[in-house]
Design a protein that fits this description.
By secondary structure, this protein is α/β, with parallel strands linked by helices. It has a single domain, classed as Spore Coat Polysaccharide Biosynthesis Protein SpsA, Chain A, CATH 3.90.550.10. Helices cover 40% and strands 17% of the residues. The chain is built from twelve helices and ten strands. Strands 3-2-1-4-7-6-8 form a seven-stranded mixed beta sheet, with helices on both faces.
């Protein structure tokens, strides 16, 4: 195996079985666009079958990384608001400080509906300046989400997207309390739109360092918005050269039918390459 030259990056993922295929594509893109980087992938879940976890682990071994699994008890967050698009696993990122080993100082959380198209070292090395998280705000042309969430949740800062987050686990272990999350869920249960993201902003919005969305959490629905706001600078070529993370927010997802997203064809490319890699890797491991 080729020697990994950079300091190891700990990646956190929290999914249920329904998102394993997109997760594999995301992790494949991560490795393909930074092949010299050493990664440990931390999977927090409740009930993914053992055989499916084994398959994911084998793929990551083939890519030169390791998988660490943490299975949580079904009683954790029992009764928390969920939906098909937003399963219970979405809350685990907020509780990662309590779930992951105390030897871990920080972790980089990534949603499964992402492509990583450039290295992540600069985000990993971000100085949090005393904050617990680093995340991006999807401002949009009118920053409509800020005004809505100021009224809905009493937020006095921009509304941060929880799909990409650098987390200071040491701070999270002392500041993120399960009871606070339960209390916030009870208080806003009829107002929550994106439950875990709403809770992140309501409880911890003042402890988040903002990072540039066009680099670290590029909303693929907003190509024209980025292009306009940058006076034409953030075109496709700029994005491919400078953006590290493409985030396929909203619906439909790129692996679903009738998706007209500008970046869907790129997603198809990585998905197809990942499946080819998995087939070859399974042959080698048999």
């Amino acid at each position: 195996m080729e020697h990994k030259k950079n300091q190891k990056i700990d990646i956190l993922v929290t999914v249920d079985e329904n998102y394993l295929e997109p997760l594999k594509t995301m992790l494949y893109s991560l490795h393909q666009n930074d092949p010299q980087q050493a990664f440990t992938i931390w999977l927090i879940h409740e009930k993914i079958p053992t055989a499916a976890v084994k398959e994911l682990r084998e793929m990551l071994i083939g890519l030169g990384s390791t998988l660490e699994e943490r299975r949580v008890a079904p009683e954790l967050l029992k009764g928390a608001p969920t939906a098909e698009r937003y399963p219970k696993e979405m809350y685990f990122r907020l509780l990662s400080g309590a779930i992951l080993p105390k030897t871990l100082k920080k972790v980089l959380y990534l949603d499964p509906d992402i492509l990583v198209i450039n290295p992540l070292q600069k985000l990993w090395q971000t100085d949090l300046e005393g904050n617990m998280f680093a995340a991006a705000i999807h401002a949009g042309m009118t920053n409509l989400s800020y005004r809505i969430n100021t009224l809905r949740l009493g937020a006095d800062r921009g509304y941060f997207n929880s799909g990409v987050m650098l987390i200071d686990l040491e701070k999270a272990r002392t500041q993120v309390k399960l009871q606070d999350i339960y209390d916030a869920l009870a208080k806003y249960k009829n107002l929550l739109v994106l439950p875990d993201q709403d809770i992140l902003n309501y409880l911890y919005g003042r402890s988040i360092k903002e990072v540039p969305e066009e680099i670290w959490n590029y909303d693929t629905r907003q190509f024209l918005s980025y292009l306009t706001r940058s006076f034409g600078k953030y075109d496709t070529r700029w994005t491919m050269q400078h953006t590290a993370i493409l985030h396929f927010c909203g619906k439909p997802k790129p692996w679903e039918e009738k998706n007209g997203n500008k970046f869907t064809i790129l997603y198809f490319h990585y998905e197809q390459m990942r499946r080819r890699f998995e087939a070859l890797n399974k042959g080698r491991m048999q």
